[in-house]
Structures are given as structure tokens and as C-alpha cells.
Amino acid sequence: MGAAKLAKANGSPAVGTGQPSAVRLATTGAHLSERVPLFYIDDQVYTIAAKPRPNVALRYMYTLKTRGEQIATAQLLEDLLGHDAYLALMDHDDLEQEQLTAIMQIAQKLTMGALEAATSGN
Predict the structure, then answer these.
(1) What is the pTM of this model?
(2) DSSP 8-state class, residue 49
(3) Half-sphere exposure (CA, 13 Å, Cβ side) for 9?
(4) How far apart are CA 8 and CA 20, in angstroms?
(5) d(CA 1, CA 7)
(6) Which helix (H) or strand (E) holds 36?
(7) 3-state DSSP: the chain helix, strand, coil percent, rounded to 5?
(8) Closest by CA position to 5, among listed 16, 14, 121
């Protein structure tokens, strides 16, 4: 990629203009990624993306700010797991508080790690 195109892609000033360029976002639908187990119910595995998309982290932070930690974490789990897996977790009568806390912490750590990687340029 040429220097001018790379500068534009990164939102850096275009060569010779001194003005920052806007970053162009496109909808590709290509956001499938490797998945890792988050929890099991009996022999059924429930997975989440190994590297959640940065917009999931942004949505989590926004909901955290506007609605509080409990609602933000519940929404994050549903965003990461999908509706059916979230319902399976919610309907599991033998779920213990320590297990739920561990699941939420893993989800938060993976999500915020994805945002940190995006903002650090990695």
C-alpha cells in the first residue's frame, strides 16, 4: 500500500496536505472469528469470539456509562453469546453466583482486551 493510501487508511494526514483524512468504514459482513469456550452446561459448550469486535466493547462502555454495570454486563453476555446461548445460561437453575461471576469476568476481559488492542494499534 502506498504511503498516501496508508496515511488515509490510518486517518493520518494525507501526504502534502497537513489535514487529517477521515477513516472510511465499509460493511463487509466478514466478522466471523475463532471462537473459544466460555462455559459448559452439562456436555453442551457455549462459545464466544476469541477476539470480540471493537464495536462490542464500545457498546459495552456506552451501556456501562448510560445504564450501569449490571445492565451493561448482561447486554455484553448476550452480544457475545447470542440470544439462544444467553437464554440457556439464564435458564440454568443450577448456576451459582461464583460461576456467573467467572463467566462475566472472562467476557469483560476478552472484550476490553479487544478494545485495548484496537486503540494501541496492535
Answers:
(1) 0.69
(2) E
(3) 7
(4) 8
(5) 10
(6) strand 35-41
(7) 55, 10, 35
(8) 14
Asked whether the beta carbons of 4 and 47 are under 8 A apart, the reply is no
Angle at Cα 82 formed by Cα 77 and Cα 87, nearest 5°? 75
CB of 52 closer than 8 Å to CB of 111: yes
Q: pLDDT tens, 24-75? A: 777 776 666 789 999 999 999 999 998 888 889 999 999 999 999 999 999 9
Q: Which three cell numbers stand for residue 35?
A: 471462537
| 3-state secondary structure (DSSP) of residue 116 | helix
What lies within 8 Å, CB to CB, of 39 at 6+ separation is: 46, 89, 99, 103
Ramachandran category for residue 35: left, alpha or beta (phi over 0 → left; psi -120 to 50 → alpha): beta
User: Residue 50 has which C-alpha cell?
Assistant: 476469541
Nearest Cα to 111, choosing from 46, 59, 39? 59
Cell digits for 120?
A: 494501541
